[in-house]
Amino acid sequence: MSLGGTQIRVGSSTNESDAFSSSALVSAFYDAAAAMDEKGISQDGRVGVLNPRQYYELIQAVGSNGLVNRDAQGGALQGGNGIIEIAGIKIYKSMNIPFLGRYGTKYGGTTGQTDPGNTGDFVSEAMEDGRNSVAGIENEYGQASNFNNTCGIVFQREAAGMVEAIGPQVQVTSGDVSTIYQGDVILGRLACGCDYLNPAASVELFAGTATKPAAF
Hints:
Blueprint: E1 6-9, H1 22-38, E2 46-50, H2 52-60, H3 62-65, H4 75-78, E3 85-86, E4 89-93, E5 98-99, E6 102-103, E7 150-156, E8 160-172, H5 176-181, E9 186-196, E10 202-206
Parallel strand pairs: 1-10, 2-4
Antiparallel strand pairs: 2-7, 3-4, 5-6, 7-10, 8-9
């Protein structure tokens, strides 16, 4: 985070397991909401993104955290659709966010999480270095080590934006071409760009250290 973005610690120990503590997550969300209120960020369109295990930790602690949607019962609740929001922040789960130096989730170490096995090599994959000075992504997302303690994000919709130059398109061959090749050639196209607009509307959650992650 930089240029006004806020960084909030989840828990108070040096163990990465704090990232999965439902009480610590709830407290961090309230801190994030207060920080955005203090910066004059609109309450409309605030969302938070956690990894699935964090999300389900909140579901399992509904008896004490009061976050469950009482209208979601039975299959809907068991499917993880029971959490509505914390401090006006709508909660989502994703595997496409930085989490303790990896994508989506991390096992072992001080996380307290055990690898269930046979998850696939695309799960808990290490993050790449996203600096312009390093070949590869080349899009100033920051050094990979900057996300070693990141464990969630909270933002308001003004934090970032995306512009489409070419919307999603699909082209399919037809007629004699299909006969020649005994099949269809399908081409999909999309051209878009995204970047931050108002970093003050973003919050990074981190755990396992008292030192805030480096800004990029």
